[in-house]
Amino acid sequence: MSGGIDSSVAALMLHHQGYEVIGMTMKTWDYQSSGASKRETGCCSLDSIQDARDVAVQNGFPHYILDIREDFGASIIDNFVNEYLAGRTPNPCVLCNTHIKWEALLKRADMLNCHYIATGHYANIRFENGRYIISKGRDSSKDQTYVLWGLSQQCLSRTLLPLGGYLKTEIRDMARAYGFSHLAQKSESYDICFIPDNDYRTFLNHRIPGLEQQLQGGSFMYKNKFVGTHRGYPYYTVGQRKGLEIALGHPVYVTGIEPETNTVFLGDEADLKDQQMHIRDINLIKYAQLPDNFQALTKIRYKDRGTTATLHQQDTGIEVIFHQAVSAIAPGQSAVFYEGDDVVGGGFIKRNTQRLLKP
Description:
Oligomer: single chain
CATH architecture of the largest domain: 3-Layer(aba) Sandwich
Strand order of the largest sheet: 11-14-13-12-15-16
Structural class: alpha+beta
Radius of gyration: 22 Å
Strand content: 25-35%
Shape: globular
Number of domains: 3
Order of helices and strands: HEHEHHEEEHEHHHHEEEEEEEEEE
């Protein structure tokens, strides 16, 4: 229970359906440790923890605060920093769901003799052909399956997602009907939870003092030519156009990053297009093994509408060949495969075939 409307209503729905509910709020991060400039908000703030507790207390079920800051810092924060230092764009929410939230909740569920864990994600789970399958929820505008591709069959077998069959507007109405109108009015944050001001560059500088001074002055390369210097390669991501602080008379985009030489490669919008990529650390959900030449709608970022691609499963991962070129394939981001509304599986983008434009 984060203290937001979705997890609160999910708990209340199960409570009124007769489940024995135990509320659990996870303290993942101290915002003061991040160097953020904004006031603490989101699931780790005192206000949010109190909102979660109020829901539990007023409905007569217990509520606990689970301190996982140490595990979160070691797994999620360190990975976030290391991915940027490797020239990749990390996906911390996927890692958190896969390795922190679900594992931490299941561990406590076992200690409390709870068979299920439940969350406020907008998605569905069903059992079919011997597999637990995640599928998109009814509210397509709130679909959260993209960040759940890493969940194991064991995790899915013990997970309830009460909101999958509802629209967000219906959940707001439920919150009011349950007597928690203020939850229906709470704004939603789409920032990374440990960077409430959405400024990951300041966060990196805070975690690694002197990073910018050490890396500033690296080369911008455009069409095989040196065109200027940059602040340091970790401060850029593939597909970035704004904030480059370089004027070439026309829009340019980051097309590649080479950490070894502190080089950022620029190109035109057309240079971002590619039709092939390799996926590592895959987790298959709908099938234990992909059929040969399997076709799936493939999303390479959260808000991506998806592009049809042919998937070739290999020992090292999955080779993806898009049926039409896609833009800004960013190593480190998640690729998630869909068959209709069902999640086939996913993994992290290891590389694409796009050539770095360098001498």
